[in-house]
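RETRY 2/3 - previous attempt timed out on the joint model. Re-submitting the same 1190-residue input unchanged.
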Amino acid sequence: MASYSPPLRDMRFVYHELMGCDALTDLPGYEEFTPDLIDPILEEAGKLCADILAPLNRSGDEEGCRLENGVVYTPAGFREAYKLFREGGWTAISCDPDYGGQGLPAAVNVLVEEMICSANLSFGMYPGLSHGAYRALAAHGSEELKRVYLPRLVDGTWTGTMCLTEPHCGTDLGLLRTKAVPQEDGSHRITGTKIFISAGEHDLAENIVHLVLARLPDAPKGSGGISLFLVPKLLPDAEGDPGPRNAVQCASLEHKMGIKASSTCVLNFDEATGWLIGAPHKGLSAMFTMMNAARLAVGVQGLGLAEAAYQGSVAYARERLQGRALSSAKAHDQPADPIIVHPDIRRMLLLQRATVEGCRAMAVWVAKGLDEQERHPDPAVRAESEDFVALMTPVVKALFTDLGFESANLGMQVLGGHGYIREHGMEQHVRDTRIAQIYEGTNGVQALDLVGRKLGAHGGRYLRQFFHPVSAYVERHAGNASMAPFVGPLGKAFGRLQQATAQVAQKGLADPDEAGAAATDYLRLFGLTAMAYLWARMAETAMERAEAGDPDGFYAAKIATARFFMERMLPQSGALFSQVMAGGASMMEFDEAAF
Amino acid sequence: MASYSPPLRDMRFVYHELMGCDALTDLPGYEEFTPDLIDPILEEAGKLCADILAPLNRSGDEEGCRLENGVVYTPAGFREAYKLFREGGWTAISCDPDYGGQGLPAAVNVLVEEMICSANLSFGMYPGLSHGAYRALAAHGSEELKRVYLPRLVDGTWTGTMCLTEPHCGTDLGLLRTKAVPQEDGSHRITGTKIFISAGEHDLAENIVHLVLARLPDAPKGSGGISLFLVPKLLPDAEGDPGPRNAVQCASLEHKMGIKASSTCVLNFDEATGWLIGAPHKGLSAMFTMMNAARLAVGVQGLGLAEAAYQGSVAYARERLQGRALSSAKAHDQPADPIIVHPDIRRMLLLQRATVEGCRAMAVWVAKGLDEQERHPDPAVRAESEDFVALMTPVVKALFTDLGFESANLGMQVLGGHGYIREHGMEQHVRDTRIAQIYEGTNGVQALDLVGRKLGAHGGRYLRQFFHPVSAYVERHAGNASMAPFVGPLGKAFGRLQQATAQVAQKGLADPDEAGAAATDYLRLFGLTAMAYLWARMAETAMERAEAGDPDGFYAAKIATARFFMERMLPQSGALFSQVMAGGASMMEFDEAAF
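RETRY 2/3 succeeded.
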């Protein structure tokens, strides 16, 4: 099984050279995050991931989680690894210093998250869910709740969950039935069943903080009648130390295709004690404040597993001797050539590579937007950044996870039969990455978010944050011969995206089913165009930097991958364009009974 | 979990109405296979699959196979099911009547195979591998071997295997090391280790007949020094009854991503007794005589699982109430609409449907070619059919299994979180279908077969069997307004395929890496064009038939699916065309050290 090697060189390229994130030190609160601080953080995170988390990935998958008498046991080694993770301060890196956090920029955090996902996605679920709970509570909780819970979520002694889904409702939370009855002391009694609750019960932390969506007795029907509650597994005493057990139980663990070391629970709340977070009936919007970050984080799961699969398939392609190069034998001293000589193997490796590096650049781009949205002194810049992040969030979530799954499958294809058996760990990547296309809003829901909420909103205001820079970039490089192999295809794809956008916006106004029918293909077209923009910029940066020398060939490889992307991946945009332009009649006119 | 419902109506459409397979009764040996015989056979096969095999699919996956003291136990129920399968004559349907077979046309057999794969792919592996061994033995075995082994393989009391792969060699069989030492009595002693041997050891049959590739002492190096041997698990006595145990042992079972009820063995041969099949050093070509049939069969696995996934996702989409239709609520008496109202759900269902019905038509088309190749009285027709089957085989194998995997994943996406847990069986379809892209020659190898062996061979003679009929069809319908929505897109895709073919042939002559770099995308372009041709023909047939009435809406749905295919699936051909035309430099010039 291939070991994990943190892609630090490319991370530094994206952070410092491509995206100029060193300028984040200009933002209030980020002054100290100079390159000499950032690089060692990434290195340390990489070590933790490679040395501690990655070695537990396959054993965790084999062993899975175990439920015994209401207690969930994580696989061997997870408790010790979590202790190291927590003590190393990794649960705190992107949290508010007021609550013990380190306040690192999102643009750094996203790279740390990528490495955690590459090394051990199941492990990453526990701190990942905690961080979601942290964010919702930090944004909407009362001072009293924040004082008790936030420091413990930040230092990782407690973990958190997000309890949304019920057996009959997932995407449509308006249907949810869990009840909350107010008590005289200001608390509530929560009763209901939640399913698919990641990290819902486990043995890593001394307490678990459930954030639960439920209905108050006077709640209006539908999604406008949902409130958010904090329900701890153990009720804290006056000092905040875990006290008696609350009435929430893990009824069973789901048997899943992958991420088997992540405990996915059915939770029964039986008059459990909880406290309201935010205003009554405003639970969904409170949830949505952490949703952007959570969706970006799920996108990064796709990226992380694509990187892991890439590394595994490159290692195999170098080692596996099979057949001879089509042109002429290469490894004359061996009985056969390594399969990396074959064009079709290289095609698959480069598809993975173009995916990984393109998505990584996009992840940092959007995360930097998140930093500016939160900290830029100019409110106009903050507003623009907010638009940009809102626009790109569904694209990142769906594109990265779709491409991540494709990359894991390409990895398996490179390994052939050896990819299908457990030994090399590649089939686990395929199984693990598959969930990312589904949870935190299926990729179809992301596409509807893009065409339904982001495209037309405020007269297309969100779109400007993408269209303007790309349009300006294409114009600026119009006469540049060395950039033509990149800007030419980008311009073509961008033109298609503009046309498709106009059609989707126009037709969708008259008939929302038209927008819905276009949504998934439109999102992919948008995502590929965004990747093309970033690949053109990466080629440009690499060419500039290479003028001062390229001893390890890093920049040459970057330019070569950019070329591959333009020639062999971006052409999909033409097909997607045709499919969008064909409209939705072929779907909507199909007789439902005939399916 | 959705039950399996045999798609008999569509099978009858393809067999009788579209492909005119009733005319197969004109071929010698097929005289009796009139529609009144064929339809009940399909019905009976459907019943067996729905009632006996499908109910064991999920339990078989959960339980898997078990190795104890060299004995492999299949999951509960498999022995009883195999007994029924065998006694029902299903192991014999496409075998030679001289050995107890029923001699059914391949065009029928392919439909039976599809249903078996839909119901229980793991189960189907056991008779499937047997059939491969039957074919190789029937084509190349001595009369004595055939007399003893064929009747037992045909009636299923014994099963067979194909032992090719070794730890260090899969695609490149020239590297294989298993040795065969001739004995004075004419037998051989076989020694070596084989891996990934499907049905290598199990408890379904009283004996197992291994067909083993090995090297004779005087064998030339490479693939021209491989011979084929028959090595029974139990050595038959003079009457052909199973006698003493031969020196072949199952050392371990592979732990696989899917098809867990199919036993995949590491087999150790330790001076096992075997007999040569065919000529010395001609083992690979003997294997290749059954390879076409085996590859078509693996393609059909993709089709079968796409159908199963389609049925599962349609059932879920009708039942799952979630959200409201984008245009206006449909199910006013329900708290939400079934998700089948949503365009993006319909898009996924129609992608599956267009895949399934298109592949089914292609499967019967090619299988009919196989029948004509074997039985047509006119040697010219036989030769043409052989060319056609040789050309289409890699396309069917790779296209069907790629699309089958995509369809299974679309099924999972329709089910959302419920698709990722085991309960509904959809994640099993994803895991099971994934292997079909790998075994029997990876899909990359199929693509190389198409561009390397089939495209240029005999001055492009193979190609004519596809290009001529399609070209004639497009011309014939050029002025037909009602066919324009189908023939227009077909003509465009076909034009692209012709241009791409010219480029691949030309560039590939000068540099085989150019053909290799184009291969996978070219194969998909070819496959989509072939599907477009069949979808046009299906639309045509449906329109003609509908004139006499369409009470159940079958023909209307067919025409609507054809339209969907042309508008939402075929446009991919444009992207594939661009990718092929971009050439291979971006892959081959990438510095190997930089991966």
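Chain B touches chain A through 104 residues (CB under 8 Å). Closing ticket.
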